[in-house]
């Protein structure tokens, strides 16, 4: 009688895994393909109206552009950590040619799985390291959009004081605060940004209370680096102006909403999948911005005066053309020390580890 | 500090305190009857999404609030059947109810993400700050205060309240005298569910008029902590809820004013530290008795 022991089970499982993995790794060559299977791993629900929503819209847009040359699947609501490793491995095993993992916390699991599947391409969003040459990194320069918001805020604010609802003091958020403030100060040298940390990416009630606190203390512009539309609703009630986060949120605040920074990952996804199609895919680490069409602004509100619209459009156009960079010296920090001398521009490397605030930021 | 700013702060305090107060009042009655329902967060989410959906579809926010009330009671009925009739463990079932509520509310709410509805805002609008402070709140704020008074009177001065307390202190004795222990506990759990549902719709109809997954962001747990903080007394609950509201608001106001005397993390932790401190003080003063109902969390089966 065949007895089921742990050892037998394990060896059977190993054999099964090996027999699955071997054909997968021999069956491929690095040349061109007729059809690509692309898989996406999302941290939130596709209906979050923010980060994950933007990635899924880009996936749909890519399918529209590439037609039947691409077949996509996605898994939503994947928790960051060990569970994501299982999901990523499953997708690779199921024959995906390229896997996009779209949240910071998926980085280590992606590195692990990428090593196990050398013939599958992996693309990780917002991470900082890879472990093998079949894994790429991609991110977007959202701070360029913050410079547009700052310009609008500087022009429209009467009190010269903006309230900034921030999540966590990581470089991504810090550089956003700085870009916003620098751009606003170019228009109004006395401009101040008051930051309130809510220690959460998502807590509608707290975000709304923070916005109300800022508004009651004299801010007439509200901007945020948190994910819910609650601060916009607070601004709408108080008659202040505000900006959408990650997607157009004007339905929540038709009067207050001026514009929003919108993540458009579509051009990047099309480009990368096409590269797999023609066999030219190579691991890379890209940080794309307005010039690449990855960071765009949602339509400017009719409530915005013409001259403000023009100024905001100019920042957008110049950033796109490469003639405007908000982190160009002279830049002084909160203590008045010059951090970036006249004529110099902060390097991408320095931006990605930014841990100081420019003059005008109160936190 | 100007009058306008002071009024704005006090208005925010009332806004932050009301849902905590309503949810905690419900949980207080549940616990007084000897049942521990840790599913407040889940019931609040169900109330929030139902309230929003009904208000959106009918266009009448009051209907939304009523629907939230009923939805909360309905989910709590699941809890009641499992723990009271089938004698499942109350802690585990309560936690399961929270997880269930989080998932189901996300499912029901999927078509309602990204839209707004009419709100259950103030009935009267005033320009004068003092008038606004007294009359300019959402009706739910006044309802919360009225409910506190009603619950206090019920538990302290009514015969039925006395019976409910007796059931929570000694279910065996109450049963022996001839009181219907399970029926009373069923009613208490339903009341708790209804209050949690109502508290939930305060978020989706008043504070942040929208629906998004996990809208209440853990406030249900604060409500449970609040019951312990108040040592099961409605008067202290009112005080505690407004105190929690004040701390939450002052944390943000202090940051907005650029006032950095304390680490913001410390201010955020303050309500929880206060709960622990109060528990310790009460236990110490009464030599180990924190006024908890003696039968809290225990299943009851009639033996005779």
TrEMBL record, chain A:
Query: Which PROSITE patterns has this protein been placed in?
Result: TAT
The reply to whether Signal figures as a keyword in the UniProt entry is yes
Kindly indicate where the leader peptide sits in this chain: 1-27
Domain named ABC transporter substrate-binding protein PnrA-like: which ranges? 35-312
Pfam families, A to Z: Bmp
Is Signal tagged as a keyword? yes
Alphabetized UniProt keyword annotations: Signal
Q: Which InterPro entries match?
A: ABC-Purine-Binding, PnrA-like, TAT_signal
- Which PANTHER family does this one have? ABC TRANSPORTER SUBSTRATE-BINDING PROTEIN
Q: What is this protein called?
A: BMP family ABC transporter substrate-binding protein
User: Which species does the entry assign this protein to?
Assistant: Fulvimarina uroteuthidis
From TrEMBL, chain B:
- Renumbered to this chain, the signal peptide range is none
Q: Identify one Pfam family in the record.
A: BPD_transp_2
Keyword Transmembrane helix: yes or no?
yes
- Compartment(s) of residence: Cell membrane
The answer, when asked if Transmembrane helix is one of the entry's keywords, is yes
The record gives the membrane topology as: Multi-pass membrane protein
The principal localisation class reads: membrane
Q: Which InterPro entries does UniProt cross-reference here?
A: ABC_transp_permease
Enumerate the UniProt keywords alphabetically: Cell membrane, Membrane, Transmembrane, Transmembrane helix
Task: List all membrane-crossing ranges.
Answer: 6-26, 38-57, 63-84, 91-113, 133-155, 186-205, 266-285
* Name of the protein: ABC transporter permease
Species, as recorded: Fulvimarina uroteuthidis
């Amino acid at each position: 009688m065949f007895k089921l022991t742990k050892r037998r089970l394990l060896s059977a499982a190993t054999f099964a895994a090996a027999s699955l993995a071997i054909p997968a790794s021999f069956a491929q060559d690095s040349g061109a393909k007729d059809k690509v299977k692309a898989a996406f791993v999302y941290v939130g629900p596709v209906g979050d109206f923010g980060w994950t929503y933007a990635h899924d819209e880009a996936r749909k847009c890519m399918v529209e552009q590439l037609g039947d040359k691409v077949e996509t699947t996605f898994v939503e609501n994947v928790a960051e950590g060990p569970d994501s490793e299982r999901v990523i491995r499953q997708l690779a095993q199921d024959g995906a040619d390229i896997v996009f993992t779209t949240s910071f916390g998926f980085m280590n699991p992606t590195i692990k799985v990428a090593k196990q599947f050398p013939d599958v391409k992996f693309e990780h969003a917002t991470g900082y390291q890879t472990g093998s040459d079949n894994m790429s990194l991609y991110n977007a320069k959202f701070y360029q959009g913050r410079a547009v918001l700052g310009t609008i805020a500087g022009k429209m604010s009467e009190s010269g004081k903006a309230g900034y609802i921030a999540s966590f003091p990581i470089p991504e958020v810090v550089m956003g605060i700085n870009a916003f403030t620098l751009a606003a100060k170019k228009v109004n040298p006395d401009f101040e940004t008051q930051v309130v940390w809510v220690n959460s990416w998502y807590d509608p009630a707290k975000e709304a209370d923070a916005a109300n606190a800022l508004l009651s203390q004299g801010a007439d512009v509200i901007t945020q680096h948190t994910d819910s539309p609650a601060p916009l609703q607070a601004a709408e009630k108080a008659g202040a102006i505000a900006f959408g986060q990650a997607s157009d949120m004007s339905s929540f605040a038709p009067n207050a909403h001026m514009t929003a920074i919108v993540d458009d990952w579509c051009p990047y996804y099309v480009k990368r999948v096409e590269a797999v199609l023609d066999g030219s895919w190579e691991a890379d680490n890209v940080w794309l911005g307005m010039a690449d069409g990855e960071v765009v602004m949602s339509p400017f509100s009719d409530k915005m005066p013409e001259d403000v619209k023009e100024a905001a459009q100019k920042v957008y156009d110049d950033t796109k053309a490469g003639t405007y960079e908000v982190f160009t010296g002279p830049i002084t920090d909160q203590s008045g020390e010059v951090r970036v001398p006249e004529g110099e521009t902060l390097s991408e490397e320095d931006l990605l580890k930014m841990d100081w605030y420019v003059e005008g930021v109160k936190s | 500090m100007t009058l306008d700013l002071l009024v704005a702060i006090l208005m925010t305090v009332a806004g932050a305190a009301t849902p905590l107060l309503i949810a905690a009042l419900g949980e207080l009655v549940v616990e007084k009857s000897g049942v521990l329902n840790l599913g407040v967060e889940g019931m609040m989410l169900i109330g929030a999404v139902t309230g929003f959906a009904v208000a959106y579809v009918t266009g009448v926010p009051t209907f939304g609030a009523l629907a939230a009330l009923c939805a909360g009671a309905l989910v709590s009925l699941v809890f009641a059947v499992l723990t009271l009739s089938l004698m499942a463990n109350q802690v585990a079932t309560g936690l399961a109810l929270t997880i269930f509520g989080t998932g189901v509310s996300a499912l029901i709410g999927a078509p309602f993400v990204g839209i707004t509805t009419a709100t259950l805002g103030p009935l009267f609008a005033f320009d004068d700050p003092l008038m606004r402070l007294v009359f300019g709140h959402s009706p739910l704020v006044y309802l919360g205060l009225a409910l506190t008074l009603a619950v206090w009177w019920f538990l302290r001065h009514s015969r039925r309240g006395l019976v409910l307390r007796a059931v929570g202190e000694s279910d065996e004795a109450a049963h022996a005298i001839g009181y219907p222990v399970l029926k009373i506990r069923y009613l208490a759990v339903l009341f708790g569910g209804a209050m949690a549902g109502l508290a939930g719709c305060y978020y989706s109809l008043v504070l942040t008029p929208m629906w998004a997954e996990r809208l209440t962001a853990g406030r249900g747990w604060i409500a449970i902590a609040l019951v312990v903080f108040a040592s099961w007394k409605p008067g202290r609950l009112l005080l505690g809820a407004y105190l929690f509201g004040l701390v939450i608001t002052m944390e943000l106001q202090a940051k907005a004013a650029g006032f950095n005397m304390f680490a913001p993390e410390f201010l955020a932790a303050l309500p929880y530290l206060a709960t622990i401190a109060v528990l310790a003080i009460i236990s110490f003063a009464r030599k180990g008795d924190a006024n908890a109902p003696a039968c809290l969390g225990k299943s009851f089966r009639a033996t005779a």
